[in-house]
Amino acid sequence: MNWLRRWNARSLASQFFIAGGLISIATMFLVGLLVTHLIEDAVIHNSGAATALYVDSVVAPLLPDMQTESLLDEGSTQALDETLSQGALGRRLVSFKLWRSDGTILYSNEKALVGKKFPVTDKLERAFAGSLVARYEIASDPESIEEHALGKPLMEIYNPVLQPWSGQAVAVLEFYESAEGLGDSLAHARLRSWGAVAALTAVFFLVLSALVFRGSHTIEAQRKDLRERVNQLSTLLAENRGLQRRLQRASQRAAALNETYLRGIGADLHDGPAQHIAYASLRLDSDLLINATTQPEAREKELAWIRSSLAEAMTEIRNICSGLVLPQIEKSSITEIVTRVVEAHQHKTETRVETIVDEDGPELAPAVKICIYRFVQEALNNAHRHGGGIQQTVKAVSHNGHVRVEVSDRGDGFDPSEVRPSSLGLVGLRERIDSLGGSFDIKTGGGGTTVVMTFEPMEVGDER
Q1: What share of the chain is helix, strand, coil (3-state, %, to 5)?
Q2: How far is residue 157's CA from residue 273's CA, in Å, rounded to a whole number?
Q3: At a CB cut-off of 8 Å and minimum separation 6, what does 252 contact?
């Protein structure tokens, strides 16, 4: 089946050119044979009919009444001998015979054949049926020994002799004509016929080939385009699968981080406000407040401790809530968002933050704005806790949908490998940025720490 695979590997145009070429050649050969045969038959028949008409016009008046079945009388024989041996007719005819329906030769210029009876051939039967029979070939009949000895094709004609009043064929004239030039005419006719058939077949095949090659070129172009599209779709599908797996992992990590974050909030509430409230609750049951003999100054001092504990609990609760609740930033610009976070951080930590913002891009999606807010907030908190808040800087750039936010400090830095997977800070930032399709990078060392988040234009489209 190797040939079948090689054949199928060819283009449609190549397959058509090979198969169509072979079929066209075979068709041209068959049509050429048919047309040539028809033309030869027409030429031979017309030539024979013209000769038969000429001979019949000369010979028929010399024949006696053909109702009798006897041989020709001496007068008719002599008249035919003189007519057939002289003039143009004598030069054209090679031999002449007059047949009776039973195969007997009534007259012949070869006297030895007169009176002999031969088998009735198909040509003779058709002539007695009233048809003119013409052949151009080398004589091969039993009575045509001398004609066969010439060794060249002759025009053989069988012409029926009809009764004027009944139209019945009572005898048949058979004669051989040298037909000089007929062979050349037939050869020229064959050549012209084959040339015409070959030219028409070539034109037809070339026109079809042009159409097929054009269609094949279109099909190949469409197939190439389809193959490219399939490759693109396959690439997109592979990317989509990767994004799905990435999203699934991000969702799983986000769920785990949420649980950790909630436990962190619970721990902050338990270790902070809950302790102060519990301390205040215990002091409410102290003897200084219950005993009626307690001095007013001591009771007031005890109440002041309780008020102080409750105030500290309320302050810590407000601080926790302020870290959880976002301000209204959906309609804010990047400049307003960064400024709001920086001012809150400076007020809280009493440190200074250098701020550089450059924006001229389109409106960002709310999810991206929230991510920027949390990123700057968490990065500044880490810079203050771990880097001492030394030379804190925030740089934010937004151009044509490309967003880059960078937070840096000049502290001592840290080892990123020591960050626990359960840590809420850097891990939470990375998961939040990854979930939106952005990128997160961190550089740290003895000269300080820099964290960078980046979003490309396709990643920050309007989420409407």
Answers
A1: 60, 15, 25
A2: 136
A3: none
Reported as a single tens digit per residue, the pLDDT across 72-113 is 777 777 777 777 777 666 677 788 888 888 888 888 888 888
Please check whether residue 148 is in contact with residue 138, taking contact to mean a CB–CB distance below 8 angstroms.
Answer: yes
Q: Which residues contact 413 (CB under 8 A, 6 or more apart)?
A: 387, 444, 445, 446, 447, 448, 449
The answer, yes or no, to whether residue 48 has pLDDT greater than 70, is no
φ, ψ (nearest 5 deg) of residue 73: -75, 170
Using alpha carbons, select from 435, 23, 399 the residue that is nearest to residue 257. 435
109-118, 147-156, 258-267, 390-399, range with the lowest pLDDT? 258-267
pLDDT band at 237 (very low <50, low <70, confident <90, very high): very high
What's the pTM value of the predicted model, to 2 decimals? 0.42
CATH code of the domain made up of 329-464: 3.30.565.10
Which helix (H) or strand (E) is 426 found in, with range? helix 426-435
Do 30 and 235 form a contact (C-beta atoms < 8 A)?
no
d(CA 129, CA 115): 22
Gap between the Cα atoms of 269 and 317, Å rounded: 7
> What are the contacts of 107-113 at 24+ separation with CB within 8 A?
107/71, 107/72, 107/76, 107/77, 107/80, 109/80, 109/81, 109/84, 109/85, 110/146, 113/143
Sign of CA dihedral 203, 206, 209, 214: negative
CA–CA distances in Å: residue 61 to residues 56, 92, 97, 407: 8, 19, 16, 133
Rounded-to-10 torsion of CA 48, 49, 54, 56: 100
- Name the token pair of 118: 């031969």
Nearest to 375 by CA among 414, 319, 431, 330: 431
* Non-local CB neighbours of 458 within 8 Å, separated by 6+ positions: 401, 437
Distances (CA, A) of 246 to 235, 238, 421, 442: 16, 12, 17, 20
Q: Among all chains, which residue has been given the structure tokens 């080892």?
A: 415
- What does DSSP say about strands 105-108 and 448-455: parallel, antiparallel, or unpaired? unpaired
Q: How many angstroms separate the CA atoms of 27 and 41, rounded?
A: 21
Domain ranges of the chain: 272-325, 329-464
Which is it for the CA torsion 359, 360, 366, 368, positive or negative?
Answer: negative
448 φψ region: left (φ > 0), alpha (ψ -120 to 50), beta (else): left
